[in-house]
Structure formats: structure tokens, C-alpha cells
Amino acid sequence: MSGVELWFGPGGIAAGVGGVVLAAAAWVRAWRESRNADEKLKLQRVADEEKLELEREKIRLEERNADLAGLQALTTELRSDLSRIREDLTETRKDLDVERRRGEKTRRDLDAERRRTDEATEKIDAQGKELARLADERAEAWKLVRRLAGHIRAREEWTVLHLQPRPPSLELIPDDVVHIVFPDGGPYPREPPDTS
After folding, report:
1. Quick one: pLDDT band at residue 164, thresholds 50, 70, 90?
2. When comparing pLDDT for 138 and 28, which is higher?
3. Distances (CA, A) of 133 to 4, 109, 119, 130, 144
4. How large is the average pLDDT for residues 37-50?
5. Could you give the C-alpha distances from 48 to 36, 51, 67, 106, in angstroms and in order?
6. What are the CA-CA distances from residue 120 to residues 85, 112, 128 (Å)?
7. 77-89 pLDDT, tens per residue?
8. How far is CA 108 from CA 102, 105, 120, 151, in A?
9. Model pTM?
10. Phi and psi for 167 in degrees, rounded to 5?
11. Distance CA 51, CA 55 (A)
């Protein structure tokens, strides 16, 4: 067998080397395919995880949107409540204004009534002072009347005891005695009844 046959022949070294090369190439191809499959699995796993995370984020967003919708509904209710409270405050303010005007009118009426009461009190005090003055004058008048009556009684007694009766036109009247005529009850005045 020649060297050419030994190297390139069916059972030659080149054929064996070619088989090894082919086997190595097939192994490399299989390794690459396996690695590619692993990479694909990893990428698929990452994609699945990202997809799952996206689904979770979507769920969170939906929950957040639901919360926002609830907050919007609550905000709408709060705005309605605030509007009602504002209307109630407006009505209350109007009622307070009416009550304040009524209170001011009542205060003016009370002031006028107080002034009338003060004026009536002043009039009553003045009348009381006038009555006291009249009572003092009446007491002085009664003192004078009793004094005159005493003079008259003393004069009559003195006349009865010491003088002969004379006509009334000739009787002397002392200078300090005022001649008083009592047409309905004798020579002496009748004092008012004692009510004390």
C-alpha cells in the first residue's frame, strides 16, 4: 500500500481524522444548540418572569385605578357634603343676622323702657318730695290751727271768767290771732282721723 492510499484511503489516517473532525463539529454543533436552548430557556424564563411581573403590575395598576375611582367617589361625596355644609352655614348666618337684628331691636326697646322707667322714677321721686313738702306744710298748718284754737279757747275762757258778755262786734281779737270762720262745725276745726 502506497502512502497515498494510507492517507486518503477508506481506512486511511485522513479518513479517521476527518471522522474525528466531523464528530467534533457535530459535538460543537450539539453543544451550541444545547447552549442556545439553555439561552432560549433562560430568555423564555426571563420573558415569563417579565410577563408575570407585567401582569402583577397590571393588577396593581387596576387596584390603584379602583382605589382612585373610590377616592374620586369619596371626593365627590365630600364635595357634596361640603356644599351642603356651606349652604347650612349660609342659612345659619342668615338666621344669626335675623336674631342679631331682633336682639338689637329688643335692646333698643329695653333702653327705651329703661329711659321711661327712669323718667317715671324721677317723676315719682319728685311727687314724693312734693308730697313730703305738702305733708310738712299741712303739719305746719295744723300746728298753726291748733295754736289759733288754743288762743281762742284761752280767750274765751278768760272772757267767761273775767269779763261780762259783750256783743261779738265789740270783742277784741289779739293781734297775733287770725280770725277764722268755720261754717259747718263750731268754732274749732275738725282734725282728720288718725290713721296711724
Report:
1. low
2. 138
3. 177, 35, 21, 5, 16
4. 81
5. 17, 5, 28, 84
6. 51, 12, 12
7. 888 999 999 999 9
8. 10, 5, 18, 63
9. 0.36
10. -60, 145
11. 6
